[in-house]
Structures are given as C-alpha cells and as structure tokens.
Give the backbone structure.
Amino acid sequence: DGGITQSPKYLFRKEGQNVTLSCEQNLNHDAMYWYRQDPGQGLRLIYYSQIVNDFQKGDIAEGYSVSREKKESFPLTVTSAQKNPTAFYLCASSTGTPPDTQYFGPGTRLTVL
Amino acid sequence: QQQVKQSPQSLIVQKGGISIINCAYENTAFDYFPWYQQFPGKGPALLIAIRPDVSEKKEGRFTISFNKSAKQFSLHIMDSQPGDSATYFCAANFYDKVIFGPGTSLSVIP
C-alpha cells in the first residue's frame, strides 16, 4: 500500500524538551511538507522540501527544524524555542510538478505538559 | 496577497439538503483550486479540484463553481448525507505551495 506514515499518533512532551516527529512516504514523491493545524486556523505551512538535501521555511518556521537526507523521509523537530507547540501536525507529499495534489499522513497530535 | 478566504466557518444542513461553501482569493497567480475533506483525527484528502479556465466541475454529488472575474469559487454538495460531516478546506496552488483557507466544519443532521 502506497502512502504516508506519521509516528507517533499521540506525543506528550514536557516543556523545554525537543521532540522529533517522523514522516515517511513510499509514493516516490519529490516534495514533502509539514503543516501545523490549530482549531479554526486551517493548515499553516512550517517547512517544505522539493528535493533531497534542500528545504525552505514556510510561514511559521520559528522554533522548528527539519532535515531531508532521504527522499522517503522528512522528520520535523519541535524545539524548546517553539512557544506554543501543542497542535496537530500533518505531513504531506506531492509529485512536485504543478498542478499538484497533496497527499497527507494521518497526523501527530503533540501535547506539551 | 497569498490568502484564501472561506465562509462560513461552520454549517449545519439537513440530510438531503444542499451544502454550499464559498471561497475568495486575491492573487491572480493562483493556478489550481483544490478542495480537501478532513474527518476528525485524520489527515485531509483531495475531494475535487478545478483549473481557472473552467467555470464548473462536477464529480458525483460534489460541484465546484468558479468565477474568475470575481476571484471566487464555491463547493456545492448535493443531497448531503451524514457521512459528509467533516471539515472542508478550499485551497489555491501557487508555484510550489498550496495556500489553504481556514476551513468549514459541516454537520449533516438526519
């Protein structure tokens, strides 16, 4: 089955700790994205990557970091510098060729205690 | 202006009725307008999409109406069913990014 997997589904973190969210895709897509979803605010772009070893900041990159060492993987680290990290995090991928459909993973709900 | 406006924020429709969600944009560089459907606790999934050179696209009970001159587009769900209850996001593609509207929570009641 082709698709996007995110783990874990639920994550709890203490204030001051960094945490890494996993995102893996087997769709052979070039582009991958991380979004944050808060109630009533839709999806806000954190980081995106169009190719291995390259990524760009989205609209709300502060307090987050990413890496793209493999085409299949795009992990997101939520650092202690992120002031309000409790949210639902969604990873997506696309072919990278416009017009593009984004394929989303099931999401990770992060709660900071 | 890289923003997509969406209304209403929430919508309650009776089973069998028509659900209508409206979106508007400013940037004429947007070149593709998808709608995504999201069920609680899940990731969004593409529902239907339209290019700006087309005024209407229909797939089953779902129709997009597109007004290029007014920079507006809307989703119509005919014969709405309880299984359609979800959050709907309109979106616009801009180069290598997708700009999402804030979402509409649709509840279809029996």
The longest strand of chain B covers residues 86-94. The two ends of chain B are 40 Å apart (CA to CA). Chain B has a mean pLDDT of 95.
